[in-house]
Every structure is written in C-alpha cells, then in structure tokens.
C-alpha cells in the first residue's frame, strides 16, 4: 500500500520497515522500496544488506539497491556508497554487493568486479565472475571475462567467464 502512495512519509515508513527484525516485514518493505526508492535511500538499504544474516533480506535489499541506483541522477555517486560498504562487509554481504555492482554497471563497478575476481576468497571470486557473466549489460566487461577465462586456476570459474564472454559477444552481434 505504501509503495502505491510514494511520498516522503511513505518512503520513510518503508525504510523503517526494511530495518525491522521481522524477516517478512523487512523483505516486503525492501520490495516496495525497489518500486519507489531513490538515491537517498541507498545508505539505509546498504545498512540493512550489510547488517542482516538473512539470505532473503539480503536478496531483497540487493534488488532495492539496484532499483534505487538506477533511478539516481548520478549512478556513479550512488555506486560509491556500495563500493565503500563492500570494502568492509563480510563475505555474504560483499558477494551480494558485487552482484549489485554487476547489475548497475559503469566503470567503477567494472574495476571493482575485476579486482574481486582475483580475490583469495573463492566465494568472492565466484560472485564477481558470476555477476560479470550473467548480469553485465555491455561489452566493456569482455576483456575482463576473457582474461579470467584464460588465466583463472579454477576450471569452473574459467567456464563461467567464457560463457559470459560469449554472451556479451552474441549480444553485440545480434
């Protein structure tokens, strides 16, 4: 209901709901924020994403973050909050934030994903490569994916990177 009446009071109520200890309430509020939230909600949604132990809340917060950043007048500035949060986030939150970066795109996100793809943590590497392979929307990630496909030590990661590279090549071709 609050998402159908977007105003500052309803957005404030959704932010408060997103911070609820009740998982169902938080998920519903985050889904609504993905419909009406803007760049001003990015810090609050980031706080929820990095502070939760719930995979469901983390997933809903990721979706809300992507939507809020995409509505922003300055995506790079909004994305800077995500990059900063990722630098100190735990592994599950950092992996989710890498997915947000992949869906958002842009030079900053690409550089962060490139760096994460060479992390010593396997979950971070997988999240970065998976994000580039599955969610990146333009050809700027092709060189990064090709490098990963050629040089990563893990066969599964090389396959994911090659699949993503081919997806981007075919996307540009057709």
Helix and strand layout, with pairings?
Elements (H helix, E strand, L loop, with lengths): L7 H11 L4 H14 L5 H10 L3 H16 L4 H14 L2 H14 L2 H10 L5 H14 L6 H10 L3 H19 L1
Description:
- The chain has 174 residues and is mainly alpha-helical.
- It is built from ten helices and no strands.
- The protein is globular and about 50 Å long.
- The mean pLDDT is 94.
Number of strands: 0
The helix content is over 70%
Q: Would you list the SSEs in sequence order as H and E? A: HHHHHHHHHH
N-C termini distance: 41 Å
Write a brief caption for the model.
With 174 residues, this protein is mostly helical. The chain has ten helices and no strands.
Which keywords apply here?
174 residues, globular, 0% strand, mainly alpha, 10 helices
């Amino acid at each position: 209901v609050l998402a159908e009446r977007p105003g500052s009071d309803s957005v404030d109520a959704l932010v408060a709901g997103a911070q609820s200890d009740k998982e169902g309430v938080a998920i519903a509020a985050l889904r609504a924020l993905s419909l009406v939230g803007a760049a001003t909600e990015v810090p609050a949604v980031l706080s929820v994403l990095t502070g939760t132990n719930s995979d469901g809340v983390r997933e809903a917060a990721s979706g809300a973050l992507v939507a809020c950043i995409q509505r922003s007048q300055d995506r790079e500035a909004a994305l800077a909050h995500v990059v900063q949060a990722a630098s100190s986030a735990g592994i599950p939150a950092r992996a989710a934030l890498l997915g947000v970066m992949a869906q958002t795109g842009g030079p900053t996100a690409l550089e962060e994903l490139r760096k994460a793809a060479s992390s010593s943590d396997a979950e971070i590497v997988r999240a970065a490569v998976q994000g580039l392979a599955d969610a990146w929307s333009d050809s700027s990630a092709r060189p990064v994916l090709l490098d990963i496909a050629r040089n990563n030590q893990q066969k599964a990661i090389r396959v994911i990177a090659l699949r993503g590279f081919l997806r981007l090549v075919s996307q540009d071709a057709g």
